């Protein structure tokens, strides 16, 4: 079984092109969705807009239903969009993806609707640093999934006790979660040619959460980030 998983994980040029195409469409839809954010708009209205744009852009089969969360709802890892309205000072989380020729994309971005407060900034910068540390470990040639997960997890644990409630990432292909798995007890070794997500997150009930997720192609000598949406703090602030 494992052999099949490993063979499937290594992407051909054509497979990779499909994943990248799906991701570029997602990036366009995300940009357009950001333009629709205004006071009192609901999560479900934005999620519906995202779904309709994917259809219009010729990618109607989504990787998963779009996750759109405002305010305290960003503490829900898999928030289901509802009638919650956007207000100034809210954290906003998008987790979206679509498919091209059955190949999936996956991306999460977190934004602030107006200038973030000190605690919001602290969480965002911690998650970003955890992600950067994990990616740097991959760049240096680390291929053991649990070691990569540990780098991000230990860094976040020092700042926020046990609030990183899921694995660091997963393989992406014709299904949205495929082998290999980046989590604490994973024995998986990342082969060159596979695409994995790196998506640390912090979730504080009653306050909100931050997750930042990029798709990373593992290469022989390092990695290539397939996600082209900025993730620095300044880019995450939406002026209201």
UniProtKB/TrEMBL annotation:
Domain of life: Bacteria
Domain Peptidase M24: 18-220
Protein name: Peptidase M24 domain-containing protein
Organism: Candidatus Nomurabacteria bacterium RIFCSPLOWO2_01_FULL_36_16
């Amino acid at each position: 079984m494992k052999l099949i998983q490993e063979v499937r994980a290594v992407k051909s040029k054509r497979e990779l092109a499909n994943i990248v195409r799906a991701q570029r469409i997602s990036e366009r839809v995300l940009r357009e969705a950001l333009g629709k954010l205004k006071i009192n708009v609901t999560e479900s209205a934005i999620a519906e807009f995202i779904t309709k744009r994917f259809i219009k852009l010729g990618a109607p089969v989504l990787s998963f239903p779009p996750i759109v969360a405002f305010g305290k709802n960003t503490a829900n890892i898999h928030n289901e969009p509802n009638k919650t309205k956007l207000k100034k000072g809210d954290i906003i989380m998008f987790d979206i993806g679509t498919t091209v020729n059955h190949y999936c994309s996956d991306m999460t971005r977190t934004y602030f609707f107006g200038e973030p407060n000190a605690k919001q900034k602290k969480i965002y910068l911690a998650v970003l640093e955890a992600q950067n540390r994990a990616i740097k470990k991959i760049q240096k040639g680390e291929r053991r999934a649990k070691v990569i997960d540990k780098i991000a997890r230990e860094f976040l644990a020092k700042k926020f006790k046990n609030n990183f409630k899921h694995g660091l990432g997963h393989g992406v292909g014709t299904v949205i979660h495929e082998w290999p798995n980046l989590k604490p007890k994973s024995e998986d070794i990342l082969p060159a040619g596979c695409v994995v997500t790196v998506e640390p997150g912090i979730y504080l009930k009653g306050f909100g959460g931050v997750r930042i997720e990029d798709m990373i192609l593992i290469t022989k000598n390092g990695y290539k980030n397939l996600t082209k949406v900025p993730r620095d703090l300044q880019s995450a602030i939406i002026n209201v």
